[in-house]
Amino acid sequence: MTEAIARFFKRVNKTDSCWLWMGSLNTGYGRFWFKRKSYYAHRMSLMLAGIDVPPGMVADHICRNRACVNPSHLRVVTTRENVMENSESFMIEYADRTHCPRGHLLAGDNLDPYLKRRRCYTCTLRQKAEWRQRQATKRKQLRLNSAP
After folding, report:
1. Tens digit of each residue's pLDDT (9 = 90 or more) over 113-141
2. Rounded CA gap, 118 and 111, in Å?
């Protein structure tokens, strides 16, 4: 483990505030190999600091710098909290909506039960019916074109 810790900190550039990951990056997040498995560098930093990230939780960068691995700049939150507090997220715009673009209420039985996100069930059923109608029309057209 001490060899892994040394290898980890060999890739960290400590500045006055952020600890910048100088190793490989994937969409701005550092990656670190440990015991034949790839970890996000910021999560490894929390592990080395003795902070556990339970299942269903994520590590949030308070400094908003994805390459930062400073444990004092990280906190453990739910995915929803992380998304809602990120000013660059498009989800913030949708979270406050009470009605879909067609005016249906986004609550209760009108939320699509098969999705893990808020989607108007009335509009979903309408779109499915329209799709089935288009498919039936295409099949009918194919039969007419292929008839002798």
Report:
1. 777 677 889 999 999 999 999 999 999 88
2. 6
Q: Write the DSSP assignment of the chain as a string of letters.
A: -HHHHHHHHTTEEE-SS-EEE-S-EETTEEEEEETTEEEEHHHHHHHHTT----TTEEEEETT--TTB--GGGEEEEEHHHHHHH-TT-THHHHHT--B-TTS-B-SGGGB-TTSSS--BHHHHHHHHHHHHHHHHHHHHHHHHHH--
The angle that helices 2-9 and 41-48 make with each other, rounded to 10 degrees, is: 130
Residue 96 has pLDDT above 80, yes or no: no
List Cβ neighbours of 90 (8 Å cut-off, separation of 6 or more): none
Separation of alpha carbons 34 and 12, rounded Å: 16
Structural domains in the chain, sorted by start: 1-92 (3.90.75), 97-148 (no CATH)
pTM: 0.62
Give the span between the Cα atoms of 41 and 27, in whole angstroms: 12
